[in-house]
Amino acid sequence: MQSSRRQLLRATTALLAGMSLPRALAWGAAAGKAPRRLRILILGGTGFTGPHQVRYALARGHQVTLFNRGRQPHSWPGAVEELIGDRDSGDLKSLEGREWDVCIDNPTTLPKWVRDAGRVLSGKVRQYIFISTISVYAANDRPADETAPVAAYTGADAMAETQASFKANGYALYGPLKALSEQEAERQFPGATTVIRPGLIVGPGDETDRFTYWPVRLARGGEVLAPGDGSDPVQIIDARDLAEWTIRMAEARVFGVFNATGPAGALDERRLLEGVAAAIHAQAHLNWVPTDFLLGEKVAPWSDLPVWIPARGEYAGFGLRDVSKARKAGLTFRPLATTAVDTLEWFRQQAPERQASLKAGLTAEREAELLAAWRARQATPG
Fold first, then answer.
1. In degrees to the nearest 10, what's the CA dihedral of 115, 118, 120, 126?
2. Spatial distance between the Cα atoms of 61 and 43, rounded to a whole number of angstroms
3. Quick one: 309 exposed, middle or buried, by C-beta within 10 A (0-12, 13-18, 19+)?
4. Which helix or strand (DSSP H or E) is residue 81 part of?
5. How far is the C-alpha of 346 from the C-alpha of 349, rounded, in Å?
6. What are the residue boundaries of the structural domains of the chain, listed by start?
7. pTM (two decimals)
8. Is the N or the C terminus of the chain less surrounded, counting Cβ atoms within 10 Å?
């Protein structure tokens, strides 16, 4: 696989946007009250998983404070304190002189952000939850748990890295810098750190369309290009499941490192696509096209065909991370059907121009070309 493809695989961040308020309220109302009220500080909080954390925490009866740049205002179903600052410029003044029971750090990629947070919050929070990624691992060639080696940073000075330098490197630094951020978290908050390593985060509100492509495409119906033979393993987690569990980890004050992806049982590409199609009642026919043909046609796994990595070579274990530790700590999963239906409903509520341009997956024209080329290949003798 080309290095650019490796970089795409490592860049499994969850970006931007919350879910619609009526559905969020209905979901939060069933949460139940926590045994005790926590003062929760969320760094970020207005991206993809953050709004789900806020609503669930409020439904559980917690006191919530957000710290961010104030550029993505939200309406919350309860009182939320919002502090303004900018971690990229080192402006954390609004956090000074304050104390919280727990800090949840959602958006951090740079270790200096953790260092700066530690300088202000060390001794001021009882637990620091760092949202990392399974992209921290050095290798994906076999199934592995949280003890597997993490990627090494090979730059000149990790603390000198900025958002600009990170983006300029095509996200090649994503895994190594997240790994260093985890280590910095333990250095700044020794014995009080929880590291959560999500896999691909999906569900309503995902602006990357890395899962959304499939319910949208299947809902359109007709012949659908499906990758490989359907046996490649898949791991995903609904943003709401991740958010709920993160809050419960704060309530229970559980420390340590946890892979956080799902589902509970085995899932492969065939079960994924057939499950999504059934959930949304799609009138679609899946045409499974071999991996070698797709790679020969320069179809990029993960981007051209989302939620798909051929289980071979250096990525043979990519969809097989061990999540038993997180499950023992209470991580639970919504049914795939729920995620699929809710994602499609959310997407159909977006502006027409947003719906007209998916950010991942094949265009209709490219898909038709590939299917025609595959049919021609099959029709060619020998």
1. 170
2. 19
3. buried
4. strand 80-84
5. 5
6. 3-375
7. 0.91
8. C
